[in-house]
Amino acid sequence: SFSQTVPPMLKKLFKSFRTPARRGNHSHSTPEVLSSSQHPIERGEISRYAISVVERLQQAGYQAYLVGGCVRDLLLDIDPKDFDVATSATPEQVRAEFRNARVIGRRFKLVHVHFGREIIEVATFRANHPEGEEEENSNLSSRNESGRILRDNVYGSLEDDAQRRDFTINALYYDPSTERILDYANGVHDIRNHLIRLIGDPTQRYQEDPVRMLRAVRFAAKLDFDIEKHSAAPIYKLAPLLGGIPAARLFDEVLKLFLAGYAVYTYELLVDYGLFGQLFPASAEALKLNPDYTDQLIRNALDNTDLRIHQGKTVTPAFLLAALLWPALPARVIKLQDRGMPPIPAMQEAAHELISEQCQRIAVPKRFTMPIREIWDMQERLPRRSGKRADMLLENPRFRAGYDFLLLRESAGEETGGLGDWWTRYQDVSDSERRNMIRDLSNKDDGPGAPRKRKRNNSKRKRGPAAENSSSTAGE
Fold first, then answer.
1. Is residue 82 flagged as an active site residue?
2. Active site residue 166
3. Catalytic residue selected from 82, 175, 226, 295
4. Active-site residue, from 73, 161, 166, 190
5. Mean per-residue pLDDT for 348-368?
6. Is 84 among the residues known to form the active site?
7. Are 109 and 145 in contact (CB under 8 A)?
8. Closest alpha carbon to 6 in 77, 73, 70, 80
9. Could you give the CA distance from residue 444 to residue 423 in angstroms, rounded to a whole number?
10. C-alpha distance from residue 276 to each of 204, 235, 385 (Å)
11. d(CA 379, CA 426)
């Protein structure tokens, strides 16, 4: 039952505050007010810097509240990642109150107030956008032809701000001075019922900012909520609107989607709603052409990512992105090899093409694209173990990532002729046993595995490794 899934501290909230579900527009001008006895949030759970920002703005004569995700998470007994403040003060007025503040953003002006490593983000109350001629004459707001908001600096009242929030569960305002919560959009009801619901008309709200579709998925995965049916209905049809979002912004969103500890569920929702193909078009195509392998490899990579995050271990976006894109790579490598290109150059050329295409959609920084290519390149090198190659590969700084990636491929059912087991054993045995393992390889194969003296005299020596191993790597 629902009561069994609710954290104990939430039961106080749900017993004391049971509003009936509203129909139609879920934002209203008169908020429901929860006193400190009606909710479980305590001041001690809140960043002292966030409280000091709110109280200082209030003392200066402005309205100010903690808002959005931090209030929602505290109600759900989740530690907030950060604390955001909404205020009636303009960005310039906020900056005037704090020497440690700076105004950021153009599309959506914000103030960051710095306290050492902690940043409190302060946003001015937003209002609805003007329509028609009024909007054309405004330099504070603008939309493109599909309805996407390009600038959003129309300031308004607290009530206006609640109307402009994306989801009901984010239209919650907490005043640390009175310890009251103001609920403008029936958000507490939706928290109780585990629902992600857009405020206003879903189609229009997605058109204003298509990234809201990704946010709906992210919150649903993080909180284990359902996307309310009216909010879910337009997503599949409107998914292509993500094509108009700047690639740099989409990269940031992808990191939020997959590095929050709920990547597997996030992936399932993205695929179900037709959003995955908008973010990773080549991978979505591979999912159609080779569904079992592609799906298994991506799931295994995401499952491993979630596990590491829950264990408090570091996660590199490069390895994750290498896995998300890998299923689209082998067919391209084969195509280039069929044209006569040797395996390693074919791998490098195919990798370059694939990453370049992906960066058109999601602007993956060079600090990640380089390791991705090196991890992939290692897949073509790991089968080449004759002579001193195995020891040289072990010393390669990318060996560990390449080896882990090889095991990931095998876990998805890719046949590599026992290559993963070989490298696992090679890392653990003594030097003499390693020599025996290399000799065993030589005994199994002629050509590259033959005695070194004979190889030195073989004018075709350089072609040997490529010919021997092209069938056991990316070309599978």
1. yes
2. yes
3. 82
4. 166
5. 96
6. yes
7. no
8. 77
9. 17
10. 22, 12, 38
11. 16
